[in-house]
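Q: What does the predicted 3D structure of Corticotropin-releasing factor-binding protein look like?
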Amino acid sequence: MSPSFKLQCHLILIFLVALRGESRYLELREKGDPDPFLLFSANLKRELAGEQLYHRALRCLDMLSLQGQFTFTADQPQLHCAAFFISEPEEFITIYYDLVSIDCQGGDFLKVFDGWILKGEKFPSSQDHPLPTTERYIDFCESGLSRRSIRSSQNVAMIFFRVHEPGNGFTLTIRRDPNLFPCNVISQTPNGKFTLVVPHQHRNCSFSIIYPVVIKISDLTLGHLNGLQLKKPSAGCGGKGDFVELLGGTGLDPSKMMPLADLCYPFQGPAQMKIGCDNTVVRMVSSGKNINRVTFEYRQLEPYELENPNGNSIQEFCLSGL
Ligand SMILES: *[C@@H]1O[C@H](CO)[C@@H](O)[C@H](O)[C@H]1NC(C)=O
């Protein structure tokens, strides 16, 4: 990379981070957070530190959360490889094929999957993803370079590949693009805060946390923000209309998880739950008639919290003592 190109990249990065910082700033101001610049500079540092990893080798089993260029070269026949990509909740991932040297006729393959699959379970589930399952796989050996870049529908994506011949492989560039209304998300961190907004869209959105957590739902709006179309509290949700459900389970697929709680009328003020399951999902079902919004905070459970249900008023799920 020439020095001036590198400088340009730095400037673009700083610009992007500034843009992102700006939107966070507005969001935080709304919630009355005292120091938005803490977040801003932490982000900037992370991004610039990440810049140094701009090019690296890809392993047969890999996990990436950075933008950059990644090269896989087989040193022996590699038959079962996968790389998982994850970005921030409010980003899409775009995968560009820079160079592909594999033998499709000889049984090699390189496939992108729009989401993650682990042990046969998909995220987002087929119920929550905008595309039918078959269209979520893009096979290089079928499409070739006619689809040079592939953008995910959420903050996670992955590739599967098989390369028989030592020396063969491929180079990909991974970029992250802003997503104004993140719908399906896997949290990159075990602690965090998020507001899921579904504005007049007939779709379902799942926010997945792949850790046991305490989750606090602080705000739920189902309906017009002026409150005119709010539903009356009623007994249970009956699976109708717009609602939020909390799910717990051991796998990745929200449609296979256990429903723990349903929330179908708006409230303010925290509802807190301890969820000791491996995986927790906040899922919003929307008819498209309303602007729906839910805010929640989560923090990873400590090992001792998993063992001792505390017997107070907090609802608890998936804990060994239950
Ligand atoms: C959303 O989920 C609900 C219940 O889980 C289902 O009845 C509905 O068909 C789904 N909507 C869409 C757009 O997939």
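A (community wiki): The structure tokens above were generated from the sequence. The pocket of 2-acetamido-2-deoxy-beta-D-glucopyranose is lined by residues 127, 202-204, 285 (CB under 6 Å). The longest strand covers residues 91-101.
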